[in-house]
Amino acid sequence: MNNSSHSTIRLYHIALSPFCRKVRLVLAEKRIEVELVEDRFWEPGSEIQRRNPAGKLPVLRMDGRLLAESQAICEYLDETHAHPALMPHSAIDRYEVRRLCSWFDDKFNAECTRPVMNERVWKKVMRAGYPDSRTVKAGLSAIRYHMDYMKSLLEHRRWLAGDVMTLADFTAAAHISCLDYISDVDWTHSSEVQEWYAKIKSRPAFRSLLADHLPGVHPAPHYALLDF
């Protein structure tokens, strides 16, 4: 066995997946060196089913194991690499972080990220037809609803789950950054949310995300700008 290959940490991912981005942000924040391996799971030759029987990305090869499910991966990383901590100490504060992670990974994804990205990005990349304008319009309207909810949180907190940055912020930013790549976030809708995103976007952990480029889908002109 090649020991160096066995010890290399690899993340099987796709650039504009919010779930992959969430794990990338945690790895970068904790300064864990990782090799990014793109898995175009819709193409012949993908080994996604072998790595994860659920057929989902991301998959992290680490500590001699294949780890799946972004929330489980992120909490594993936080427990095995304590600094900086992304989960609070108290049970009620951890509850709030997990509640918000679920909000963005489930509700926000179902109403905003998945429909808009499917129609405007993945149909094009996978050559699966033309976007449905009604689906896109509904997704864009839902983004504004969620921004209003985020604003209501940020009016009383420095970060989404409280006074310190947590995994909840990275989860939300992972989703929003995908939509911002294609210029589908109306930053004039909430200055509070824009200021929050500017703070998190300025972190060193965000740099690799801002360098992403999906072939055939160009990022918005402001996407990589810290002052936007």
UniProtKB/TrEMBL annotation:
<comment type="subunit">
    <text>Homodimer.</text>
</comment>
<dbReference type="InterPro" id="IPR010987">
    <property type="entry name" value="Glutathione-S-Trfase_C-like"/>
</dbReference>
<dbReference type="InterPro" id="IPR036282">
    <property type="entry name" value="Glutathione-S-Trfase_C_sf"/>
</dbReference>
<dbReference type="InterPro" id="IPR036249">
    <property type="entry name" value="Thioredoxin-like_sf"/>
</dbReference>
<feature type="domain" description="GST C-terminal">
    <location>
        <begin position="90"/>
        <end position="223"/>
    </location>
</feature>
<dbReference type="InterPro" id="IPR004046">
    <property type="entry name" value="GST_C"/>
</dbReference>
<dbReference type="InterPro" id="IPR040079">
    <property type="entry name" value="Glutathione_S-Trfase"/>
</dbReference>
<protein>
    <submittedName>
        <fullName>Glutathione S-transferase family protein</fullName>
    </submittedName>
</protein>
<keyword id="KW-0808">Transferase</keyword>
<dbReference type="Pfam" id="PF13417">
    <property type="entry name" value="GST_N_3"/>
</dbReference>
<dbReference type="GO" id="GO:0004364">
    <property type="term" value="F:glutathione transferase activity"/>
</dbReference>
<dbReference type="InterPro" id="IPR004045">
    <property type="entry name" value="Glutathione_S-Trfase_N"/>
</dbReference>
<feature type="domain" description="GST N-terminal">
    <location>
        <begin position="7"/>
        <end position="85"/>
    </location>
</feature>
<dbReference type="Pfam" id="PF14497">
    <property type="entry name" value="GST_C_3"/>
</dbReference>
<dbReference type="GO" id="GO:0006749">
    <property type="term" value="P:glutathione metabolic process"/>
</dbReference>
